[in-house]
């Protein structure tokens, strides 16, 4: 999937007062208190308030499917760990919790949960499928990202959102293309990296506390004894001289 799973972070929806996300080809509920916007064909959803706004992100994209795009290829791609580079330049190998097929409302998707696959210290859940329409096939790619600190809080909300995913295979592709909702792949890598860097708070390694070297208590006792003995001898000699 090359650029697709390395470069897409996904959410294909419009914000509504009913806390539902909708696009011509997909609809789903989203967490209360979140808004979505479109940026160069990518839909980006985030919480309105801090600190959650910097701790989680949902982005989505639909692209015209190529001969490579299939659930089997998606699954094979997501089963393999691909290292990322942390801020200190060290390579991090993602931890893959699972990569499997998942039936959502009668549609088969590929679903994968990974840690450190997009950003150090963040969980990423990938959900992808192929949408067959009268005008052709479209790859629907969605990614949910949340920091490890907020994972337990957001995971159930992402789960509910995924459970409400509904595809629309009768959408007007010409209208969507003009509106910029179906993106092309050439620029996605650069766009996605910019989005992550700008919108999420990367986890930095905390400096290790400076520790004073431990001193063995027996060494201290021995030093005291030696000092006392030298003092005793010193004063004893002075006393003899006076006599």
Helices, strands, pairings?
Blueprint: H1 3-7, E1 14-15, E2 20-22, E3 26-29, E4 34-39, E5 42-47, E6 56-64, H2 71-78, E7 84-85, E8 91-92, E9 95-104, E10 107-115, E11 122-133, E12 136-147, H3 151-163, E13 166-167, H4 173-179, H5 188-199, H6 217-242
Structure notes:
The protein has six helices and 13 strands. Helix content is 29%, strand content 33%. Strand 5 (42-47) and strand 6 form a beta hairpin. The protein starts with a helix and ends with a helix. It has a single domain (3-199), classed as Protein Transport Mog1p, Chain A (3-Layer(aba) Sandwich), CATH 3.40.1000.10. It has a seven-stranded antiparallel beta sheet, with helices on both faces. The protein has a four-stranded antiparallel beta sheet with strand order 1-2-3-13. It is elongated. The longest helix has 26 residues, at 217-242. It is of the alpha+beta class and 243 residues long.
Q: Average pLDDT across residues? A: 75
CATH topology annotation: Protein Transport Mog1p, Chain A
Helix-strand topology string: HEEEEEEHEEEEEEHEHHH
Count of extended strands: 13
Number of helices: 6
Judged by helices, strands and strand pairing, the structural class is: alpha+beta
The CATH C-level class name: Alpha Beta
Fourth CATH level, the homologous superfamily: Mog1/PsbP, alpha/beta/alpha sandwich
Q: Per the principal axes of the C-alpha atoms, what is the gross shape? A: elongated
Beta fraction: 25-35%
Strand order of the largest sheet: 4-5-6-12-11-10-9
N-to-C CA distance: 99 Å
Poorly predicted ranges: 3-20, 185-190, 206-210
Count of folded domains:
1
Query: How much is the radius of gyration in Å?
Result: 29 Å
> What is the architecture at the second tier of CATH?
3-Layer(aba) Sandwich
């Amino acid at each position: 999937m090359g650029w697709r799973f390395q470069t897409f972070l996904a959410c294909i929806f419009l914000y509504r007062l009913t806390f539902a996300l909708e696009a011509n080809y997909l609809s789903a509920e989203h967490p209360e208190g979140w808004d979505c916007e479109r940026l160069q064909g990518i839909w980006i959803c985030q919480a309105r308030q801090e600190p959650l706004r910097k701790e989680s992100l949902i982005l989505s994209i639909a692209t015209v499917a190529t001969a490579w795009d299939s659930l089997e290829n998606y699954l094979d791609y997501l089963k393999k760990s691909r290292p990322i580079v942390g801020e200190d330049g060290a390579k991090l190998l993602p931890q893959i919790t699972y990569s499997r097929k998942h039936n959502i409302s009668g549609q088969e998707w590929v679903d994968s949960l990974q840690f450190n696959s997009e950003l150090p210290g963040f969980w990423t859940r990938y959900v992808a499928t192929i949408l067959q329409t009268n005008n052709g096939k479209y790859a629907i790619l969605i990614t949910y990202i949340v920091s490890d600190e907020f994972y337990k809080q957001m995971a159930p909300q992402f789960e509910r959102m995924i459970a409400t995913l509904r595809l629309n295979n009768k959408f007007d592709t010409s209208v969507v293309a003009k509106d910029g909702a179906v993106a092309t792949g050439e620029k996605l890598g650069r766009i996605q990296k910019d989005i992550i860097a700008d919108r999420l708070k990367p986890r930095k390694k905390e400096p290790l506390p400076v520790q004073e070297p431990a001193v063995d208590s027996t060494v201290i006792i021995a030093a005291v004894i030696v000092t006392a003995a030298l003092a005793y001898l010193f004063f004893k000699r002075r006393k003899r001289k006076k006599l």
